[in-house]
Amino acid sequence: MKRIVTATVHNRSGVLNRVTGLLAKRQFNIESISVGRTETEGVSKMTFVVEVEDDRKLEQLTKQLNKQIDVLKVSDITDKAIVARELAMVKVISNPQIRSEIQGIIEPFRASIIDVSKESVTVQVTGKSDKVDALIDLLRPYGIKELARTGLTAFTRGHQPQVAEFKSYSLLK
Amino acid sequence: MKAQASAEQETATKTGADLLVEALIGQGVETLFGYPGGAVLPIYDAIYRAEGSFDHILPRHEQGAIHAAEGYARVSGKAGVVIGTSGPGATNLVTGIADAMMDSIPLVIFTGQVAKGVIGTDAFQESDIMGITTPITKHNYQVQEIEDLPRIVNEAFHIATTGRPGPVVVDIPKDISSTVYAKEVKSDFHLPGYQPTVKPNPLQVSKLHDALVEAKKPVVLAGSGVIHAGASEELKTFVQNYQLPVTTTLLGLGSYPGTCDLSLGMAGMHGTYSANTALYECDLLINIGSRFDDRLTGNLKHFAPNATIAHIDIDPAEIGKNIPTHIPIVSDAKAALEALNAKTVKGLHHKGWMDAISQNKIDYPLWHDQPDELIVPQWLMQKVYEYTGGEAVVTTDVGQHQMWAAQYYQFDRPNRWVTSGGLGTMGYGFPAAIGAQLADMNSTCVAVVGDGGFQMTLQELSVLQERRLPVKILIVNNQALGMVRQWQEKFYSERYSESIIDVQPDFVKLAESYQVPGYKIETQEELLEVLPKVLGDDQPAVIDCRVLQKENVYPMIAPGKGLHEMIGVKR
């Protein structure tokens, strides 16, 4: 199962190596990782998307991360109300004739063209990973010359609905 | 202005190395294990100038230094302190660091590093020791600013010795240790990312108490967490209150007296029948400070299949790692046992279970053959136990002799048993005995080693020669890598690939060349004559004891098998 895990860490040299090394040593698969500074001086936030087998493996992952002295807090936010975004840049082969066609495809995704040359255009798209995947799939037939993704970054929404609220709306019970 | 100027003058000019030495003195460090070299010259100069502050032990290889520090830490309960130079000095420490990590031994290791300006240029004797040791340390530091040094040293000792203990590496670039610094430095610290849980959750303690009262087949598994927490007395009270059978892990030997009626001895791959059967059949397993290592559990499918599992551990990551846990208690073992001991116990339901266990102990004891003249290693261990009155500090390497020592030496006290459990390091036993002896000069210290392992670190005989430490090195000499040979016999159709080593040095002459008395024992008669004399005197000794080569460690759980599939239970 795919999980989104965030960790706030001391922004010290070697901390990224520490964390990724730990995940590699315990044989966890990292799908993406993004790191950046936060509102607090000296504190960075890491967002991992990981593929884990089951809940026990997931528990191990968060516990092992928590053991690191430079790791301040670890949260698995997959099941929370979250905002999650990633950015992708896609360089698509295009001549002037199909440029407007591409424009038409990317518009509903609220993506934009950020670079144009004779043989290609570069599209920038921001959003959840499945949205980014969908756009890439649509652009693929035109020929993708180059693709770069930042990996997901995420945090919880300002308001978390109570768990009870979900239950009362369940159609299964 | 004037007052300020004079205050500044009062602060003496110190190098980074002086700050290090001061911090070590502040931590109460008395013994250092280290080896000098280019990048630690300033540190060794500061140690020289602080003459009398430390007892510095110079091994003849860095690996000797770190294993000695491990033995010292194990017996003294304090952090072992190691110094090595950059590059090869640091990489020679790696085995010991990994060993200490696996067995939760508190160590603080200072490594020299090339000057900050040339780090990353492949300078002479540079190695990326931070990168190398990150996965095998509890934490590591590279000092970037001289004023951070005292704080980092204090943090390192705090991290190494609290929570689940472990090794901490502090890498000190040469320019940091040699630079002169005249200002006041702060050494207090705050570690928001490191706050071990030491007190148990009362709710979980009550749950365990209720489970204990209800249990029909309870058993306690005591690991080295009990020893680290200094909780042996509390464990005794707990076991007495609830009348529980106790088995220990390899590293937990001595956490509960091995000679007590309620003790089942060691469990696991070469554990006793009664211990492994109790673990297999129990309905409540209380694991106190052990990590369910694969050598203990055997095949996980057959490990305590019908039991409620309670697990007390200070490291939350150990709970549920290998075995799903029903009653998790994240706590220091001592605090958890104290909480349990505060409960009133009445109406226990496991009398029948205790009777069955006692019967197993009687029906399936450890066994071995006894030839007429030659020595079997099991009998040798019994004799060592007898002649030292069970009071010695025993260290070992890894392999057959380690298992026999674990089976036949009954430890009644904690911190008497020094062995490499998790990493299984050959060559550990002898240097560890040097450290153990230094930590406890009043006890007899016996390094039970194999002829293979001893040859990996025997250069430390120089330390015995220099210090006249009365360490007794007992070579259980079967002229083979016994455990490898045993597995080849059992699982590789007796193809003894590279495991029979019949070319050896003359260990007696070797010992004598270091001015250490050497003895060779080949028969039972010689053993009965020589061993009590040698173990009783105050001299170091190398005892080359020839034992039967093809002897196997039994009982045994073959790899991949479960606790109920032991072989060699009976003759």
UniProtKB/TrEMBL annotation, chain A:
GO terms for molecular function: acetolactate synthase activity; acetolactate synthase regulator activity. One of its GO terms (biological process) is L-valine biosynthetic process. Its EC number is 2.2.1.6. Residues 4-79 form the ACT domain. Keywords: Amino-acid biosynthesis, Branched-chain amino acid biosynthesis, Transferase. InterPro entries: Acetalactate_synth_ssu (IPR004789), Acetolactate_synth/TF_NikR_C (IPR027271), Acetolactate_synth_ssu_C (IPR019455), ACT-like_dom_sf (IPR045865), ACT_dom (IPR002912), AHAS_ACT (IPR039557), AHAS_small-like_ACT (IPR054480). The keyword 4Fe-4S does not apply. GO terms for cellular component: cytosol. It catalyses: 2 pyruvate + H(+) = (2S)-2-acetolactate + CO2. It holds the Pfam family ACT_AHAS_ss. Pathway: Amino-acid biosynthesis; L-valine biosynthesis; L-valine from pyruvate: step 1/4; Amino-acid biosynthesis; L-isoleucine biosynthesis; L-isoleucine from 2-oxobutanoate: step 1/4. Signal peptide: none annotated. It comes from the Bacteria. Catalyzes the conversion of 2 pyruvate molecules into acetolactate in the first common step of the biosynthetic pathway of the branched-amino acids such as leucine, isoleucine, and valine. PANTHER family: ACETOLACTATE SYNTHASE SMALL SUBUNIT, ACETOLACTATE SYNTHASE SMALL SUBUNIT 1, CHLOROPLASTIC. Dimer of large and small chains. Belongs to the acetolactate synthase small subunit family. This is Acetolactate synthase small subunit. It comes from Halobacillus trueperi.
